[in-house]
Amino acid sequence: MKERKLYLLKKCHDNGLDVIGNDTLHKPNAWEYLVNRKHHIIWCNIFKAASSSWMYNFNVLSGYTPEFLKQTKAVPLMLARKKYPRLSVEKLREAQRDSITFLIARNPYERLLSAYRDKFMFAVPNSFHDKLGRKIINKFRKNDERTRPRYPTFSEFVSWFLEEIRLNNYIDMHLVPATSFCTPCLINIDIIVKFESLNEDQLYLIEKANLSSKIFPEWKNSGRGSKSTVELLQSFYDQLTDDQKARLYHYYKYDFEIFDYQFAV
């Protein structure tokens, strides 16, 4: 854990990300942190990085019972925000003085693929993402390919995503780089949990935070299908051109660098 933090701090400094400025990379963002003052634990909720599991944990820590959370139809994030109001940077830093602050890092290519599969491949019919998927198909699928899947292929999805980035449009919270979402180069992170060692890291975090009697290691939405992560990445990213992969890397460059992930598929 110490090595991960030192590595992050070095890469932040090497890339000039630890200097405060006015853009999203250089302006501390406290907006996405959930602060539990009672249990002295703070989490930046990076979506598609065990976020369902830890949203459940934070809802339990806030007072919701497991029974209620199991039967409610309410969106977990909405429930959480009723208990965890968004704080200013100053209030977040104040809470950090006697709390453990953590985030969960994940390979950016994995995060993106997970978001695509969850929100587009397996979209709930007539949901926002289902309707968006149809718009993507209409724009990026050729007429002679209309018999292909009802959801956008990964290549079509990436073409749309890269265009959204180029046009500087709003980017869905499931797709935003962690570097700008949590600004970990400007806000102190005590523990960096890694998605690929989630089980072991969760146990360490829970014990370090003295929460062993309150919550347990959870892993909700752990995946669909039997393919390994490496096989999944290969099968989907093989659909992309070298240019698409390079542009994705450019967008997630700092996530790759500060969390020590390799650019290879």
Order of helices and strands: HEEHHHHEHHHHEHHHH
Determine the number of helices (DSSP H or I, runs of at least 4 residues): 13
Low-confidence stretches: none
- How many distinct beta strands? 4
Largest sheet: 4 strands, mixed
- Portion of residues within helices: 40-55%
The averaged pLDDT comes out at: 93
What fraction of residues sit in β-strands?
5-15%
Derived from helix and strand composition plus strand pairing, the structural class reads alpha/beta
Alpha-carbon distance between the two ends: 26 Å
Oligomer: single chain
Shape: globular
Gyration radius, rounded: 19 Å
Strand order of the largest sheet: 1-2-3-4
Fill in the keyword field for this structure.
265 residues; alpha/beta; 13 helices
What can you see in these coordinates?
By secondary structure, the chain is an alpha/beta fold. The chain is built from 13 helices and 4 strands. The protein has a 4-stranded mixed beta sheet, with helices on both faces. A hairpin with a 4-residue loop joins strand 1 (33-36) and strand 2 (41-44). Helix 2 runs parallel beside helix 4, helix 7 (128-140) crosses helix 8 and helix 8 (154-166) crosses helix 12. The longest helix has 14 residues, at 108-121. It is globular and about 60 Å long. The protein starts with a helix and ends in a 7-residue tail after the last helix. The mean pLDDT is 93.
